[in-house]
Amino acid sequence: MTRIVVLGGSFGGLTAALELRRLLGKEADVTVISDDDKFTFMPSLPWLIMGWRAPEDITLGVDGILRPKGISFIHEIVNSVDPEKSKVATANKEISYDYLVISTGPHLAFDEIPGMGPEKGHTDCTFTLGHAIKTGQTWKKLIENPGPVVIGSAQMVSCFGPSYELAFEMHTELKRRKMRHKAPIIYLTSEPYLGHMGVAGLGNSRRFFEDEFAASEIKAVVNQAIEEITPGEIRLKDGSRLPFKLAMIAPPFKGVPAVAPLGNPRGFIAVDKNYRHTKYRNIFAIGVAMAIAPPEPTPVPVGVPKTGFMTVKMAKTAAATIYSDIKGSIPPPESALEVVCLMDMGHTAALMKASPVLPPRQDSYTKKGMWAKWLKVSFEKYFLFKMKHGLSNLP
Ligand SMILES: Cc1cc2nc3c(=O)[nH]c(=O)nc-3n(C[C@H](O)[C@H](O)[C@H](O)COP(=O)(O)OP(=O)(O)OC[C@H]3O[C@@H](n4cnc5c(N)ncnc54)[C@H](O)[C@@H]3O)c2cc1C
To answer: Residue 66 and residue 243: Cα distance in Å, rounded?
Structure first.
């Protein structure tokens, strides 16, 4: 029987494991290894920070998803991969594989900027459930004792959407509480211009965000790298300083240490069009763990986003390719990745699309309306339903 090991229990890992089981049935022994026994629907973490969602609204137990489908789950940290011997090591065991699918997401490199981060530094973060819960506590304190807010992304970030969302959501909530004049908001970013998003913009996104930030009195500070963070102050590499009471700053992204040796200098893994490792033919990398070259050089380095939507598509292609290897059938054709992103704006929302991800494109726009807010809520409910019941065959 073919042994397939999947690293990571989130958008990519769960989808890949469920698809492999669905396609191969009892012909494969599928095991997921993840250091988190919960699946968190991360697009809703900004709502959790704002107090609009509780953790139990947006999390599912990984074992409860996998076990009924006959997929084994090991709740441990993977320490290393030996691609020559086809083995994965945790602190307690070595697990051999015939195929390995890596979907370990980003390593949040707080240590690259002195003073950054919720554990050892002075800033908050949105990128894990634990970080978002802590940011929610900082937000509550800000409501009691308002002051300057800085939200944004450091150099080498490749996920900008949540910071835009939080800037709009905090603006909306402060306004609703008649406190907006007591809490100036700055959107600080490594992007060369507003709406760049790591993909050189989506249609009219630059003008869209310039207009929306002007209307909301959110001040944009673009094209910036952060030097260090001290209690209550962000120091930029150009010498300027931004005071804050609440700073939610996305840290630089890297590949996670266990798989980084398989990747480029930042630890992201180069793959072919079917998400197969360019050297090790039985290893696949999907989602944030894989490498996409930026569309253009930027004065401050930024990464290309790999959204949940893209990650699910990659997982399906990788699973179908492994199936074709085992069955000796024709592998799935190349399927271009596109960005389809629903961005909450507090009082409204926007749909952003770029197809394909990198320019030149067939289709690219940013559109706003309450319909996008309803779509965003529906996406949350739909995706959690789909994952809870292991229905990876659904779109
Ligand atoms: C706040 C926020 C908002 C977002 N909003 C949207 C949105 O609106 N739309 C959208 O499409 N996308 C959105 N995204 C992006 C989306 O969440 C990611 O694209 C998706 O999570 C990537 O999935 P992944 O499987 O690659 O990695 P991740 O989701 O990061 O999962 C990585 C998994 O690997 C595990 N892991 C890591 N290291 C190890 C190790 N050493 N050993 C064992 N396990 C390990 C982790 O515990 C986790 O289970 C958002 C992301 C965030 C953070």
So the answer is: 46
Q: How far is residue 71's CA from residue 14's CA, in Å, rounded to a whole number?
A: 10
Within the chain, which residues score under 70 in pLDDT? none
DSSP per-residue letters across 70-105: T-EEEES-EEEEETTTTEEEESS-EEE-SEEEE---
CA of 1 to the centre of ligand 1 (A): 30
DSSP 332: P
The CA-CA-CA angle for residues 37, 26, 89, to 5°, reads: 45
Domains and CATH numbers, the chain: 2-108+254-336+380-388 (3.50.50.100), 110-252 (3.50.50.60)
Check residue 335 and give its pLDDT.
84
DSSP code, position 106: E
DSSP type of residue 275? S
Q: Ligand 1 centre and the CA of 58: distance in Å?
A: 14
pLDDT at position 297 is: 93
Phi first, then psi, for residue 108 (nearest 5°) are -85, 105
* 159 counts as catalytic: yes
* Predicted model pTM: 0.98
